[in-house]
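Entry type: protein chain
Record version: 2
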Amino acid sequence: MSKIINILTNANYESKKTATNLHKVLTKYGYEPFNGFKKNAELSICIGGDGSFIKSVHKNDFPEMHFVGINTGHLGFYQEIKPEEVEKFVKDYRDGNYQVDDIKLIRSDIYTKSKTYKFYSVNEVVLKAAHSKTIHMNVFIDRNHVEKFSGDGVLVSTPSGSTAYNFSSGGAIVYPSLHVLQMTPISPMNSAAYRSLGSSVIVPGAHTISLVVEKRYKDSNLLLVDGSEYYFNNLHRVNIRLSNKTIKKLVFSNNSYWDNLKDKFL
């Protein structure tokens, strides 16, 4: 087995200092630390906040190797290890004192008049109108018409992503191991003219959510994929479902998820 371990860090001073210490500790325990990404490494360690973790997996095309995070940011739901715990973490890793969690990903298929695009998301995908306008779209689940939505947009999140933009938009927190999607309305309109669901809907992971925009938005739309912005011409439909592709993340504490919820939100 490869002894190479990737170190992926942001430009933050604390992150760089942690990376320097991590490099020394990994070398001490017989590993070959690499500052960057090698496909033949046995592990990638992301240093930073949750944003750094998400950027790392996107940038490296959602590799199949194991990931773990050292938190030098704020929330740190994906970043379990504290900088002062680096040596303990390396010992536990060497001794196999961890479990592997699969982080579920969203697959979004974008259908335009002439092309089809595919995206993967760790946290969420959001469909809005361009220029912060109200958007009108029809929402289907497994080809069953659910509603004609009017409002700022529709957000679909993974269980792991439920504590991010989804939670800020009034969505529920979903335990990461559940095989579901959550569809959350963003500022839905409810009046005599427009009726939209005002709360989130939990959808089985095997189902497909389809968002079909009205024709006036075919060239005036905004798709957010984990915060990255995309615009499409002649947009017809966005199909969203849980992917079979996952990110394999090491977990060193059975209580880390609940501790995170309490520490970050209470």
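Comment: Residues 13-28 form the longest helix (16 residues).
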